[in-house]
Amino acid sequence: MTITTLSSRELNHDVTRAKKATKSGPVFITDRGKPSHVLLSFDDYQQLTKQRRSIVEALAMPGLAEIEFEPPLVNIGIRPADLS
Questions:
Q1: Number of structural domains found in the chain
Q2: What would the DSSP string read from start to end of 6-58?
Q3: Model pTM greater than 0.70?
Q4: What would the pLDDT profile of 28-72 be if each residue is shown by its tens digit?
């Protein structure tokens, strides 16, 4: 992985260069010599955030209707609290 550093001015003058640089690693963008932003490819971003499906998306998976699932009933009894 290669880290590329560009100033804000360099980024403004050559956005294409910055986008191409994300193919080999993150691009640090500096403002007045200090890192201020990071440019990543979308694939790197997804891997970094490990985006997961929501429960709704998971339950809407094709083929889910064929999976049999019968959770057992649970009997939860009530008992008085022991405050001693």
A1: 1
A2: EEHHHHHH-HHHHHHHTTSS-EEEEETTEEEEEE--HHHHHHHHT----HHHH
A3: no
A4: 999 999 999 999 999 898 888 886 777 777 777 777 677 787 888
Give the domain range for residue 39.
4-54
**Considering Cα of 21, then 27, then 29, then 30, what sign does the dihedral take?**
negative
Query: Would you call 5 helix, strand, or coil by DSSP?
Result: strand
What residues does 29 pair with on adjacent strands?
A: 6, 37
